[in-house]
Design a protein that fits this description.
Bound molecules: ligand PBG
Strand order of the largest sheet: 1-4-5-8-9-10-11-12
Distance between the termini: 32 Å
Number of domains: 1
Strand content: 15-25%
Structural class: alpha/beta
CATH topology: TIM Barrel
Largest sheet: 8 strands, parallel, barrel
Number of helices: 11
Number of strands: 12
Radius of gyration: 20 Å
Helix content: 25-40%
Order of helices and strands: HEEEHEHEEEHEHEHHEHEHHEH
Shape: globular
CATH superfamily: Aldolase class I
Length: 335
């Protein structure tokens, strides 16, 4: 829709008029938040009735499966439509090739089954990437220091099928290998899992803002050299994000994720304006922890800053937001 801006001339037009009262501001707000905007990421651990704080993410805990089921019920009651599950895999189960990713009884598959059993109405998203399962912490299979694309895709495909069979409504490849969306879609089709959505982390940048997450899933600090720069995107690029999205749409992505969110609002906006499909913003761990650190110091007003930062992601064009603030924001939005 192309519109012409008629700003009018002062004093006949005083743009402050409509801002003067609460009711008027509410009436003309161009963007609104609702609990249905959020996807709540949960970190899963082994055990019963246990929670474990994540040191670098104040207020976030890893949850045993029973606790995750309780969180899913809470999310449902708050009107949050979906949760995303991230396993903290036992070191003993990690390997060079990340084979545990394909185990139909791995932690995330068991969590998915338990949650879908107890709260079938909630959407479950499972991340597809090897980093929770590899000893080296890369998202794929490494040979001679190189993350191998096509061999990694083969493992991602079996990981995605395992998650979908366990009941995941959405499988979300976050690995940035080329061609994985098409390969995952084809495998789901041939397995009869035709209703499982593929949510592509299409524009995922090699970002410092994932640091606290890597701590949460125990995939931290091991990466040397180029880190994930040979597969995740260069923060300098924006046209390339559009190529990634275009390719993933061709390959069958149902929605795409832009990640991180707040330093990349321009990318969210470009993707939303260029393509007619849902764009999800991933408000990542570092963005969460940065705000939490400022709240702890008393430097920012939490009540205002959390909602403002989420609203801005939606204004940029996000259809939904993956955020560690999902519960808090949904609580504030209860009517
Ligand atoms: C796994 C994955 C990562 C995140 C989501 N899925 C980490 C990474 O790519 O290194 C980051 C999420 C966050 O920081 O909140 N590939």
């Amino acid at each position: 829709m192309t519109r012409t801006i008629h700003s009018g001339r002062y004093p006949a037009t005083r743009l402050r008029r409509t801002r003067m009262t609460e009711w008027s501001r509410a009436m003309i707000a161009e963007t609104r938040l609702a609990p249905s905007d959020f996807i709540w990421p949960l970190f899963i651990i082994e055990g019963k009735n246990v929670t474990e704080p994540v040191a670098s993410m104040p207020g976030v805990e890893r949850l045993s499966i029973d606790r995750a089921v309780a969180a899913a019920k809470e999310a449902r009651a708050l009107g949050i439509p979906a949760i995303a599950l991230f396993p903290r895999t036992d070191e003993a189960l990690k390997s060079d090739r990340g084979d545990e990713a394909c185990n139909p009884d791995n932690l995330v598959c068991r969590a998915t089954r338990a949650i879908k059993d107890a709260v079938p109405e909630i959407g479950v998203l499972c991340d597809v990437a090897l980093d929770p399962y590899t000893t080296h912490g890369h998202d794929g299979i490494v040979e001679n220091g190189i993350v191998l694309n096509d061999r990694t895709v083969e493992v991602l495909v079996c990981q995605a099928v395992a998650a979908a069979r366990a009941g995941a409504d959405m499988v979300a490849p976050s690995d940035m290998m080329d061609g994985r969306i098409g390969a995952v879609r084809a495998a789901l089709e041939s397995e009869g899992l035709t209703d499982t959505m593929v949510i592509s982390y299409a524009a995922k940048y090699a970002s410092a803002f994932y640091g606290p997450f890597r701590d949460a899933v125990g995939a931290g600090k091991k990466l040397g050299g180029a880190g994930k720069k040979t597969y995740q995107m260069d923060p300098a690029n924006s046209d390339e994000a559009l190529r990634e999205v275009a390719q993933d749409i061709e390959e069958g992505a149902d929605m795409v994720i832009v990640k991180p969110a707040l330093p990349y609002l321009d990318i969210i906006r470009r993707v939303a304006e260029t393509f007619a499909l849902p764009v999800i913003a991933y408000n990542v761990s570092g963005e969460y922890s940065m705000l939490m650190a400022a709240f702890e110091k008393g430097w920012l007003d939490r009540d205002i800053a959390v909602m403002e930062s989420l609203l801005c992601q939606k204004r940029a064009g996000a259809s939904a937001i993956l955020t560690y603030f999902a519960r808090e924001a949904a609580q504030k939005l209860q009517v």
